Amino acid sequence: MATIWIKHADVITLNEHGTLLHDADILIEGTRIKTIGTVPPDTQADEIINAAGYVALPGFFNAHCHAPMTFERGWAEDLPFPRWLNEKIWVAESALTPDDVYWGAALAACEMIRSGTVGFNDHYFHMNRVAEVVEQSGLKAMLAWCTFGIGDDKEIGPGADAQIAFSREWQNAAEGRIHTCLGPHSPYVCPPEFLKKIVELAGQYDMAIHLHVAESSEQVENSQQRHGQTPVEQLNTLGVFEHRTIAAHSLALTPTDCAILAEKGVFITRTPITYMKLAMPIRTLISELRAAGITRIALGSDGPASNADMDMLAVVRQTVLLEKYLRVDPEALPGDTALRMATQTGAQALGFNESGVLAEGRTADLILVNFNQPHLRPRHDLVANLVHSAKGADVTHVISDGKLLMRDRILLTLDEKRILDEAERRAFRMVNQNMNQVREYQA
Length: 443
What we know:
The chain has about 450 residues and is an alpha/beta fold. It is built from 15 helices and 17 strands. It has helices spanning about 80-90, 100-115, 125-135, 160-170, 175, 190-205, 215-225, 230-240, 255-265, 270-275, 285-290, 310-325, 335-350, 380-390, 415-430; strands at about 5-10, 20-30, 30-35, 45-50, 55-60, 60-65, 115-125, 140-145, 180-185, 210-215, 245-250, 265-270, 295-300, 365-370, 395-400, 405, 410. Strands 1, 2, 3, 4, 5, 14, 15, 16 and 17 form a 9-stranded mixed β-sheet that branches. Strands 6-7-8-9-10-11-12-13 form an 8-stranded parallel β-sheet. Helix 2 runs parallel beside helix 3 and helix 2 crosses helix 15. The N and C termini lie far apart (about 55 Å).
């Protein structure tokens, strides 16, 4: 059983008391944290890391993303959301191949590890290829094969039934690091009968559901006209929320919607950089969700085509700043609250309940951030410096399930140079050929 001894770190535990430790040691044995605080000096370890001047904290869990969309980074710029989808994204994806998905996800994995992410919640196509990347990289993931339910010619890959075969093959694979769930795109795309089928499959196979919900007031108004209900009310009526659900975005909610989401314990994932980049109004702020009793709020990057990167430290910072600005309240959403959303709540959404806190006996999913830098001194408040001053590039070490994925900024599980070259070659090939619009966005 491999052991890692981290010495002299300052530790942000993110436990229920918000405990901070200074000049502390962490001993990792196998996949678990064995000791945190003081380690006997005669302890033997396979690897010793001198972390003086570094901060240890739980690794990030990106609770909503489309990792292979690295191929579309910089491809769909300065467009409103409907044109962004109809003219660029859903057009480029008509030329997508399974190998493209593999290399796009591999590029994302490099980026995620480099910025301190240990797990991600992916919603895309050809997810068997993404699963291969997860297996090779050492990351954790919950994977949903996105489906539309509007005809085989509009799908990329199998329909809902074939997702079960994918789940059977990959659920708890890679030594338990891979979880799977069902991935209907959204109530504004998927017909009600298809969503009913998803609910049946979720019940039959005990699967979670990950989908996009209430991304705009227009979607809500159109749903009320078509179905006589908001998207949240419709999903509740169909039984979706009887299963563990990750409702990405949920930007335009009514008080009734909030009451439903709170009662059902739905996880909501916010991706603030996408909203700013695509100028998507936020009708329901995080503070309003919390006031309504919704406690399961996680954070994500969304896809690199809309966010442009997958740096969860940037997501945390922008979440805090955006909430304060829109509330016109500097006390809105403290930094440690946003950190918990990006770590432990995200881990819970993905089903990795032993992650997200640094404590003895918990899973060893953690990162080290180098505070020996001008922009991170003085250290009056470690959490404030981390949230408002740190960057993904300040992460030096990443440990997932007790295994080093990055040491001193060097990736250990992936061939980064090959991935960079192959991903760029394939991305250029994808957008420089005849493409078709495979579906159309209609709110």
